[in-house]
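Changelog entry

Holo records now carry the ligand SMILES as an explicit input line rather than a separate metadata file. Below, a converted record for PBG, shown in the new format.
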Amino acid sequence: MTHDRLIIATRESRLALWQAEHVQAKLRALYPQMSVELLGMTTRGDQILDRTLSKVGGKGLFVKELENALMDGRADLAVHSLKDVPVDMADGFRLSTILSREDPRDALVSNTYPNLAAMPPGAVVGTSSLRRESQIRARFPHLNVQPLRGNLDTRLAKLDRGNYDAIVLAAAGLSRLGLGARIRCLLEPEDSLPSAGQGALGIEIRADRSDLQALFAPLSDTAATAEAIAERAVSRALGGSCQVPLAAFAQADLDGGLSLRALVALPDGSRVIRVARAGRMDDAEALGQAVADELLAGGAAEILAVLNAPDAPDPHAPDPHGE
Ligand SMILES: NCc1[nH]cc(CCC(=O)O)c1CC(=O)O
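Structure line, unchanged by the conversion:
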């Protein structure tokens, strides 16, 4: 099949537009004859910013409208921050391509403190990610972790207004928006193990568009793909709920090896179950599954049972934006 024209469906936040434009530029460079355009859309997730998104549909809310555009042919592909893509894709869709990964670490932004260790008892750290919250509480129990919502610019504005002493964000999002200078320090994986897919971009297509799969193949990054497969296998095996503090971080090496670290925690940081294992890039899914099994056997099953119980306390309305 030949392609004269490709349409990229995208949300209209600054981060989403940057990501779509990044893929647009790569496709234009690969296929100079082709017209590659963006179709900007507002999703339900963008509209409902003041309510508990996990209750009205979770991460899927941000992709539904884009998927409708793919389904009825208004667009050919959608570009996502991989960590926002649900581990189980909606029927009829698939991730075709995972692009090279930027810095996967979390970053501390503060107008006062150079790092978390320098913050005094009671200092306020903003994050709405249960994954970040539980790890900060475990390592720095004297800090006061408070919810923080909104897109990147909104969150930085709240910090600058003095509502927080520091906030934690993904380094990749900040650098994509030209805000890398605001990073005071990067959090090492020992202090804040990243979320599955953090820092990577994924292209979503309709499952029947194998023509596009082939067309995008040159954009695919082998290491990032293996890492994402392993990390997402952990999330999938553990239920992928955004009510559960869960981190999964894989690193491929040049010899085809793949190391994977993952953790499941209680939101208050009083329990953190950690597993690390090494495997092979070409067996990434199995490595993720093995790590998930080891987590479950090591105490994660109890944590999941507590957090997924029907009467579990809602920690503070976790925000898919928070990841
Ligand atoms: N839902 C928010 C979101 N989705 C992707 C990123 C950052 C970029 C990335 O991790 O790829 C962020 C912001 C954040 O977590 O601070």
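Spot-checked after migration. Residues 52-56 have pLDDT under 50 and may be disordered. The longest helix spans residues 284-308.
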